Amino acid sequence: MPELPEMENYKNLLNQKIQGKTISNVIVTREKTINTNVELFKQCVMNKRVIKVSRRAKHLIFELDSGMNLLLHLMLGGWMYYGNEQDQPDRTKQVTLSFGTEQLFFIGLRLGFLHLLNGQQLQDEFKELGPEPLEPNFTYETFLELVQKRKGMLKTTLVNQSFIAGIGNCYSDEICFQAQLKPTKKFNELTDQQVRALFDAMGTIFHSGIQQGGYMDSPFTKDDQLTGKYQTLVYDREGQPCPRCNGTIKLEHISSRKTFFCPNCQQ
């Protein structure tokens, strides 16, 4: 499932391609993907200009000049492609937005959605989300306040969207590895030094993930040389050598979630 770095990468690429452009046509091939009837959706989206694309947690928000927004969550298996009739992927598209001769294809949204929401509805969607870890006001002091209220395991807490927004299965493991902490360790067992290491690890992993286009390997355009270049450190690398100590990466299931770590150098 796409997480913060993947969605931040999409946000940046989308703003390069469609910011300021007008949606000239809308095709909906799966009505369950949207939250209104198809005709109303088209009426509210066609001929509207995309002011910008922003991100909140694992969501993207397409801000339209009408004051309405398209809220996207890719969920498991969802992705996007920007191109034309000639280079489009040979996959079923749930929604297609046209910008003249170019099109934005939403693919694999069997669990994901593209909802039309006004400003208040958008805020209601986000009211349970925790802080954004890349915002300037997310300081070490802010993190300390959050940590003091927690006693659960690192893995289960990091993926909790009401704790910190945007972290999922992959990057929770990557952050724990970077901080040299075992995912099963509990927050109330951390030393001050370990709390600091965890905070610093989030910044390191997220910036690395974004700079390398995340780990999803489906290109956004035919010329996309960035998306999917992030090489995970431990996630999905069971049985492979640890890149830090050459130990063997292990897989465990924590609360039904696959969790990858090095038992040798993560304490």
TrEMBL record:
* Reaction catalyzed: Hydrolysis of DNA containing ring-opened 7-methylguanine residues, releasing 2,6-diamino-4-hydroxy-5-(N-methyl)formamidopyrimidine; 2'-deoxyribonucleotide-(2'-deoxyribose 5'-phosphate)-2'-deoxyribonucleotide-DNA = a 3'-end 2'-deoxyribonucleotide-(2,3-dehydro-2,3-deoxyribose 5'-phosphate)-DNA + a 5'-end 5'-phospho-2'-deoxyribonucleoside-DNA + H(+)
The record places domain Formamidopyrimidine-DNA glycosylase catalytic at 2-106
- Which InterPro entries does this chain map to? FPG_cat (IPR012319), FPG_Glyclase (IPR020629), FPG_N (IPR035937), H2TH_FPG (IPR015886), Ribosomal_uS13-like_H2TH (IPR010979), Znf_DNA_glyclase/AP_lyase (IPR000214), Znf_FPG/IleRS (IPR010663)
Is Cytoplasm tagged as a keyword?
A: no
Every copy of the FPG-type domain together lies at 233-267
Cofactor(s) recorded in Swiss-Prot or TrEMBL: Zn(2+)
Q: Which UniProt keywords apply?
A: DNA damage, DNA repair, DNA-binding, Glycosidase, Hydrolase, Lyase, Metal-binding, Multifunctional enzyme, Zinc, Zinc-finger
Q: What is its EC number?
A: 3.2.2.23, 4.2.99.18
GO molecular function per UniProt? oxidized purine nucleobase lesion DNA N-glycosylase activity
Record-linked Gene3D superfamilies: 1.10.8.50, MutM-like, N-terminal
Keyword Hydrolase annotated: yes
The family classification in the record reads: Belongs to the FPG family.
Subunit structure as annotated in this protein's UniProt entry:
Monomer.
This chain's protein is named Formamidopyrimidine-DNA glycosylase
Protein source organism: Alkalihalobacterium chitinilyticum
| Gene name of this polypeptide | mutM
